[in-house]
Amino acid sequence: MLASIKQYLKDFDALFFPRVCQSCGRSLVKTESCFCTICIYQLPYTKYHLDQNNKLAKQFWGRLDIASAAAFLYFNKAGKVQNMMHQLKYNNQPQVGVELGKMYGKELVKEFHYNNIEAIIPVPLHPKKFKKRGYNQSEQFAIGLSEIMKIPVYNQILYRDLEKESQTGKSRTLRFDNMEAVFKAEKPNLALNNILLVDDTITTGATLESCALVLQSIGIKKINIVGIAFTE
Ligand SMILES: [Zn+2]
After folding, report:
1. Buried b or exposed e, range 3-34, using 16+ CB within 10 angstroms
2. Percentage of residues of the chain with pLDDT beyond 70
3. Average pLDDT for residues 208-223, to the nearest whole number?
4. Which among 16, 36, 50, 101 has most CB atoms closer than 10 A?
5. Radius of gyration from C-alpha coordinates of the chain
6. pLDDT, mean of residues 94-99
7. Ligand 1 centroid from CA 136, angstroms
8. Region 152-164 average pLDDT
9. Cβ distance 74 to 44 under 8 Å?
10. Farthest-apart Cα atoms in the chain, separation
11. Distance (Å, rounded) from C-alpha 142 to C-alpha 196?
12. Which domains, ranges and CATH numbers included, belong to the chain?
C-alpha cells in the first residue's frame, strides 16, 4: 500500500516536474537518467582514451611530462555537449557531471592503462564560484568516475592560492605568466604515484598544466589527465 502511495506521489511529482534530458530537453522515460537514449547514441565521443597519441595529448607534448590525456566528448558549440555543460555549470544540475563521470568510468575501467590509478584529483574551483554554484563541476565528474572505477576522490590535495591569484589578477599578461603560481598542493599522508587529474572543458590546457606542475612538485610521478569535453 505504502509503495503504491509512494509511486503515486512520484508520478504526481513527475507530472509537474517532468524529468528531462539535460542535453536536448526531451522528457525522459523511467529507465533513462539525465540523458535520453537518442542523445547518448548521438554524442560526439572522442575515444581518446584508446589512443595515447590523440590530439589533446599532443597539445601537452614538449610542455608537460604526463602519462596520458583524454577527454570524453568533443565540445561543439551550439550542440548537445554545450547544452549539458551549460546545465552542469550554470543551471544547478550537478548530477550531469556525476552521470558523465559514470559513463566515462565504464569506458576507462576496460583499459589496462587506467588500472593502477590511486587517486582522482579534481581541478579546484575558485571559492567564490564554488559558493555561487554550490558545487565544483569537475569534482562532480570525479565522483561519477570514482563510483565506477573504485578509486577515491582527493579534493584537499590541490587548491587555489588565493593570495597569489589576487596579486596576479591585476594584469592579464602577468596573470597568464604566473598561472602555475595560482595553484598549490598539499603532500598527502599516503604517497601517491599515479593519479587522474580531472577537469570539465579543456581548451588550451593552461589550467591543467599549472595543476600538473604543482602535483609533480609534491612527488606525484604519473599524471593522467581526463576532461569531460575538449575544444579542438
Ligand atoms: Zn536528449
Report:
1. eeeeeeeeeeeeeeeeeebbbeeeebeeebeb
2. 86
3. 95
4. 101
5. 19
6. 97
7. 24
8. 90
9. yes
10. 66
11. 9
12. 1-42 (no CATH), 43-230 (3.40.50.2020)
Q: Which residue has the cell 561543439?
A: 76
Give 100 Cα–ligand 1 centroid separation in angstroms: 13
Cβ-based neighbours of 136, under 8 Å, separated by 6 or more: 122, 124, 125, 130, 155
For 14, residues 6+ apart whose C-beta sits below 8 A from its C-beta are none
Query: What gap in Å lies between CA 152 and CA 162, rounded to an integer?
Result: 26
Which among 85, 216, 4, 34 has a CA at the least distance from the CA of 225?
Answer: 216
Distance of alpha carbon 227 from alpha carbon 83, whole angstroms: 16
Separation of CA 78 and ligand 1 centre (Å): 14
Residue with grid cell 610521478, as numbered in its chain: 221
